[in-house]
Records
---
Amino acid sequence: KRELLLTLKNEKGITLDGKKILTYANIGDSKDLAAVLQNGAEGIGLFRSEFLYLEKDTYPTEEEQFRVYKTVAETMAGKRVIIRTLDIGADKQADYFQLKKEENPAMGYRAIRICLTRTEVFKTQLRALLRASVYGKLAVMYPMITSVKEVKKIKQIVEEVKEELKQEGLEFGDMEQGIMIETPAAAVISDLLAEEVDFFSIGTNDLTQYMLAIDRQNQELDEFFDAHHRAVLRLIYQTVQNAHRAGIWCGICGELGGDLALTQLFAAMGVDELSVSPGNILPVRKAIRETDTGKIREEQLKKWL
Ligand code: PEP
Ligand code: MG
């Protein structure tokens, strides 16, 4: 079976009626790069940069980060690599950040909220990313966005960083900038957010947690956790439609993206990219190639939404 799948390694995810859906990889460590290549990923859709921070007992320097991002960009040789900026807090803690203990960490001081208030930490990462983007097709993606105001602020900081690099005579490249849609607020205002960025990537793990108000870590709630809840699937569809109306692309990088029961639905919705763990790339690609969106569209939308 694995041999059969491997014949798809150099193929693309194109539906029977000719619609292309990119199959990208999620990685949480540069050690995962071998698996990305072995499974023929067309790019990296989610590079969880937290590991750079979690494996150390002090902040990773600009140079350390630059080297890692440059290696990934070069290894992927012109294929798109989407690096998510620091998503720490909640379940991911590093002592040297000295974050206060919180009653509700999942709804607390985490991810972009830390970056927008500790801008030196954020700027160090942005500098490393911009400099590394000279060596490949890097894109940057921001987690836990809830408002247009945050995105405007981020873009302003990116412009400041570029200006600083220019002043210092350091070379930097162009990066697409996208956001994760992983809060219900972001999904609901995705029409407005789409005007500000180059792409969306839907983080279904957090989106489901916040939409259903069910802690994603609490296994005792499993019986209430419906990964296929219509509320979540409808929100995904609205987000894809809002992205396309504004002329940007929209992918999915949460676990749901690799759920083969939903591949036909996502194709019917017009999702542009599915970013999944390396082992899921070829099965998802196979499912895409067996789908005729023209035929199943109405039926799939009716069944799930
Ligand atoms: C998500 O929330 O769906 C996601 C991809 O990010 P993480 O699982 O790292 O929170
Ligand atoms: Mg998330």
---
Amino acid sequence: MRKESRMAGKAGIIMKKIAAIVLSCMMCISLAACGSSDKGRTDTDTEIRSGDAAENSVRDGSAMETADVKEESSFNLETGTVMLNSGYEMPVLGIGMFRLSQSEAENSVYWALSDGYRLIDTAKIYGNEEGVGKGIKRAIDEGLVKREEIFVTTKMWTDDYDDGTEAIEASLRKLNLDYIDLMILHHSQPENDVDAYKAMEKAVKEGKLKSIGLSNYYEPDDFDRLVKATEITPALLQNETHPYHQSMKMKEHLKQYGTVMESWFPLGGRGNTQRLFEDETISEIAKAHGKTSAQIILRWHLQAGNIAIPGSSNEDHIQENYEIFDFELTDEEMERMTALDKDERFASY
Ligand code: NAD
């Protein structure tokens, strides 16, 4: 059942890619006719970029106005992906690596890829990039996946913002990869995050990073500060987001940029999950669908337009968290979930 829906999903992706190629060709012809330059492209880009999305993701430093009105990113829950404003397709459900040891990370990545996950979220500061790289290599060596089918995210730590280029090289080395699908700045740090972001922009031009974004920017003004000082619009913002902290204000703000929200602590994070799992509304909805509370919360994230990256080193939980493509929350259930928002963060950073 799961395999079939994955195959149907793959067929959908292929159709989408063919459509994107046709669209890209048409864009290229019309751009050539107009004599336009194509700042956003790099020679090393191998993936399909969706014409105007790729064009719009690069702005002239100050020319915020020209970027504006972008459509809200739409999640395709048939394919389990979202098209980023960078033109790359990203899975909307992945596995998170926070607090996992190197060996736990290796095994969790391997199990996740075996289960059908294609998105992995790690960070330099988690100290497990090598383990993640080993898990990926094991899955590729066994023929479970190809590199280009996987989407790997890592984060640049704040201590490294003054030498972003070296931080990117270090992550590439540790992950044992030629390119990283998405790198994000781990935290807002006004004194030097623009420099770090510019290092990521340079790496995009060199083909070392495909998409770039941010994490832990909680105020629209702070997000805009960085956007105004840089060229490539962040593809994604990763913030603490769960039913008790739904990030509505930031999500509304991101719409103009076509930037997608990704939820960290999607299940509330270690030590807080039981509060969410035992929430009366979530438990009731879980019972109605014959699913666990974790699955209801994760399905809610996807239907609400949040990429979710639940963390786990438990093989059964990893599988359980991926089994959310065979049911749907009704509009009424989504409304009940929305009503749970308390604007309450569990973490203090
Ligand atoms: P989470 O909300 O995913 O919760 C993880 C906890 O839930 C763990 O204790 C795990 O054992 C448990 N769990 C997972 N699946 C379960 C299931 N099916 N049933 C019961 N328990 C289950 O929190 P997280 O892992 O901290 O966050 C997700 C990911 O987000 C991280 O792994 C990391 O990649 C990322 N993250 C980013 C930041 C940031 O600052 N950008 C901060 C924290 C986490």
